[in-house]
Request: fold
Amino acid sequence: LAGMKVLGTFLPGGNPGGDFPGLMDCARNLLPLVEKGSGWDPAAVGLLLLLRGAGAEEAETAARNLNLAGGARDSVKAAPRLPDAVSRARRAGKPSDLHRALSGLPFEAQLAVLLLAGEEGARKRIVEYLSRDRFARTELDGDDLVGLGLPRGPMLKSALEALLMARMDGVVRTRRQEEEFVRANFKPADS
Reply:
């Protein structure tokens, strides 16, 4: 239960359930992610929470003064993006909305957003994203879309992104549905 203890240390009084009803359940759901040596840095989560109101220069200075390197440095440098990510995560109604809010952040920053989200429903959606939705993949790849007539380039990238969002939101569930989605939403090169 080391992961639970680590998550608990970032909450008032060090109690993962006290001031945040439902957070204990969220933390339990995250344990498989944080206990399996996923390479996340608990100290970086704490630093992010401390620096959440900092600007880019302050976060960079903190990372430099603490001699952080690699992933820990990248995580701490994400501190200025936390307020926007928390706001977007709170408003997210669909998995794809959460993906847009969280996907560019290091895992430690995503955990910080979870801890800062406040509202129980938002925290539950974030846990679902972190434990399931962020791993969503399409069955079709770029070559498949080219085979359907889409040109290589920006349209292909847009189609793959839209397809992933549709997969996350349950709009498409099978390869055939993915093909139909692409045909309905993107015009082939020879049209």
Observations:
- The longest helix spans residues 154-168.
